[in-house]
């Protein structure tokens, strides 16, 4: 009892040297808003973890599944998880007894012994040594807790990478479908203008058209041809980028469906307080904050005594000893406490405190960034829908205008320039409509990603907890 009190008194004295534990900075807290600025369809439904299947495209489903299995960034994230799991196992092993076995032996000859008679002997020993750190003040426990939190953060980071890869695959696929649609429109327009050029050539040869109209028709054909290389180059680059995401060498990507066959899904939007628990990057930032907090505890525990128990037992033998082998054993303990370290422990505590504060502000930044991303994409989905509806009406109007201008031109009531203007406006509206459709799909994917992509911490982190 006296010895225990003595140890406690020493620990209390050394703990006083550490000083009070500094709290997290006051400005690192964050308050979730009550609702989003943009009206939403918030309800009881939630996002699916395989959210890309809600677009109803089998090709997209296959591409995302392939990326989940072969993407290099996902593979690197998985390796990071295994490294963090190994570090946790090492930290936990530090709290367990350490048992070692040792043996040595040999034969020696002493030609100048004490009594003038040469001696030769064979000697050896076999020992088992055990040591155990009592960890009375929780240094190893805090280190183990920090390693576990780091494992959870790494697992959440892997889920963030997986979500990002799936979102990028989806937007890359929609870009390809958009380019296909734009390319089809330009090629169709090119065919129409070539037919018109053929007609203008016959009219000019027959004297019913002017050279100005003929050159205008020729120029329109060439201006349409000039659009093709840019679209084809963009398509090749998009295919190469998507191939890289899939873990393939650059090449073509099959896509049997057309862009207009896809439909946008309804996206359930959770409240801001729910989003805080639905994004893996926020969970990772929170886990990193917890890890730095435990590391700070370990740094403060280093000011306190380190108490270890040790034991040894075995046999020692020699051919010169009649009673060989002889059993030997020992048991004891040690107490190591810092006295003068020139500020090393204090500096380590200051470093741990600064890293904890840095993690606290990083967590706040991640949360605020998440709120901004949701707000931006909620606004984007709403405004892009309005834009698409207006462009659809504009395209229909310009389609009728082109039909009227063509009829009036064939009947001689309008000039060829009127028809060209109507056709140019229609082409621009059709291309803008396709681009607006792509913007809507991209905004939907970005909104799903901002909401966490259906990630659920209770299920997705279970493997990391079990590890």
Automatic annotation (TrEMBL):
Q: Does the keyword Transferase apply?
A: no
A Pfam cross-reference name: OEP
Cellular location(s): Cell membrane
Keywords assigned by UniProt, alphabetized: Lipoprotein, Membrane, Palmitate, Transmembrane, Transmembrane beta strand
Note the topology in the membrane.
Lipid-anchor
* Disordered as annotated region, ranges: 21-41
User: PANTHER family per the record?
Assistant: BLR4455 PROTEIN, OUTER MEMBRANE CATION EFFLUX PROTEIN
The protein here is known as: Efflux transporter outer membrane subunit
Q: Which organism is it from?
A: Paraburkholderia kururiensis
């Amino acid at each position: 009892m006296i010895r225990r009190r003595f140890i406690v008194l020493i620990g209390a004295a050394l703990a006083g040297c550490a000083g009070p534990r500094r709290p997290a900075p006051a400005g690192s807290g964050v308050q979730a808003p009550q609702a989003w600025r943009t009206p939403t369809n918030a309800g009881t439904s939630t996002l699916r973890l395989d959210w890309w299947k809600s677009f109803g495209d089998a090709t997209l489903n296959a591409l995302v599944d392939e990326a989940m299995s072969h993407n290099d960034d996902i593979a690197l994230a998985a390796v990071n998880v295994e490294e963090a799991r190994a570090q946790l196992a090492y930290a936990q092993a530090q709290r367990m007894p350490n048992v070692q076995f040792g043996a040595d032996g040999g034969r020696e000859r002493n030609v100048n012994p004490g009594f003038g008679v040469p001696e030769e002997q064979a000697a050896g020993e076999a020992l088992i040594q055990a040591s155990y750190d009592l960890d009375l003040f929780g240094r190893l426990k805090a280190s183990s807790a920090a390693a576990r939190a780091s494992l959870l953060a790494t697992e959440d980071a892997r889920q963030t990478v997986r979500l990002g890869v799936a979102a990028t695959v989806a937007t890359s696929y929609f870009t390809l479908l958009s380019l296909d649609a734009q390319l089809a429109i330009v090629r169709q327009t090119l065919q129409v203008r070539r037919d018109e050029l053929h007609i203008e050539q016959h009219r000019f040869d027959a004297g019913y058209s002017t050279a100005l109209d003929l050159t205008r028709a020729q120029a329109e054909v060439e201006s349409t041809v000039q659009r093709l290389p840019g679209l084809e180059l963009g398509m090749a680059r998009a295919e190469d980028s998507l191939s890289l995401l899939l873990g393939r060498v650059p090449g073509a990507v099959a896509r049997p469906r057309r862009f207009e066959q896809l439909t946008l899904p309804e996206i359930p939007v959770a409240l801001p307080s729910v989003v805080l628990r639905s994004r893996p990057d926020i969970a990772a930032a929170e886990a990193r904050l917890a890890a730095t907090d435990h590391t700070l505890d370990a740094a403060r525990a280093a000011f306190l005594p380190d108490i270890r128990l040790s034991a040894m037992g075995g046999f020692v033998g020699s051919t010169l000893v009649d009673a060989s082998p002889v059993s030997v054993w020992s048991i004891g303990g040690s107490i190591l406490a810092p006295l003068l370290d020139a500020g090393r422990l204090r500096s380590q505590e200051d470093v741990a405190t600064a890293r904890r504060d840095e993690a606290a502000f990083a967590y706040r930044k991640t949360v605020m960034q998440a709120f901004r991303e949701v707000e931006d994409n909620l606004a984007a989905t709403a405004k892009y829908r309005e834009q698409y509806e207006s462009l659809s009406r504009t395209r229909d109007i310009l389609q009728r205008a082109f039909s009227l201008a063509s009829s009036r031109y064939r009947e001689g009531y309008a000039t060829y320039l009127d028809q060209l203007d109507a056709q140019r406006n229609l082409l621009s509206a059709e291309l803008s409509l396709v681009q607006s459709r792509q913007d809507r799909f991209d905004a939907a994917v970005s909104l799903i990603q901002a909401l966490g992509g259906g990630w659920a911490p209770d299920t997705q982190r279970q493997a990391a907890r079990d590890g």
